Amino acid sequence: MFIAICILAAAFYGLRELARVESVQLFGEMRSHGPQDRPRVALTFDDGPSQPHTTEVLAMLAEQDAVATFFLIGEAIAKHPEASRAIAEAGHEIGNHSYTHARMVFRAPGFVRRELDQTDAAIRGLGYDGPIHFRAPYGNKLFVLPWVLARQNRLSVMWSLEGDGDLALQKDPAALAKHVVSQARAGDIILLHPMYSTRPGTRAALPAILTGLRDRGFELVTVSELLGKAPH
Ligand SMILES: [Zn+2]
């Protein structure tokens, strides 16, 4: 009995360790950065759309002729169809961030599949015909979710630079912009939440992030461009 418990514990520990390493996600492919030999980065915006913040963010991107990748929540697309359509029409990439932003760990495959499929349908309903990659809510990537993703031959996209995760940075737009611009490396996928109503600091920092990254010589590209991925 004791030996069985030890084996189980070791197996569980091993799985946890494996799950931390991006290249060996249990099933399916996951990427958290692109090739590091070219000065390109991808800005990714999680959650939303929400209004009026989506309109504000799109205006800032348009002002600087910059592209981004928006990982949208299906439910929020249904609530804000016009803002969602505006993202697609502006030529940005749209990713699937689940339908309800539920935690995906220990969910039945049917639940996970519905979350993905409903969101795909909502995105396609906007007239968007680009690639749709997936980013898990809360970054969960174990068990059922990767299995479903693998069965759908879908790419999971994480990030290599967390922009606005830190509470102090959220309150200080200049420090936030400096953090992102100074930490960025070639191939980075940068995570920001500019459509959260609770993150005015991220919106305030966005123009300086765009100019700062370009001043450092980075080209801003979509996730698919960065990863060299053909349409899904
Ligand atoms: Zn999220």
From TrEMBL:
Q: Which residues form the NodB homology domain?
A: 39-221
Q: What does this protein do?
A: Is involved in generating a small heat-stable compound (Nod), an acylated oligomer of N-acetylglucosamine, that stimulates mitosis in various plant protoplasts.
What domain of life does the native source organism fall in?
Bacteria
User: What GO biological process terms are annotated to this protein in UniProt?
Assistant: carbohydrate metabolic process
Which molecular function terms from Gene Ontology are attached? hydrolase activity, acting on carbon-nitrogen (but not peptide) bonds
- Which InterPro entries does the UniProt entry name for this protein? Glyco_hydro/deAcase_b/a-brl (IPR011330), NODB_dom (IPR002509), Polysacc_deacetylase_ArnD (IPR050248)
- Official protein name in the record: Chitooligosaccharide deacetylase
Q: Gene3D superfamilies in the record, alphabetically?
A: Glycoside hydrolase/deacetylase (3.20.20.370)
Natural source organism = Candidatus Rhodobacter oscarellae
Family, according to the entry, reads as follows: Belongs to the polysaccharide deacetylase family.
The record ties this protein, via Pfam families, to:
Polysacc_deac_1 (PF01522)
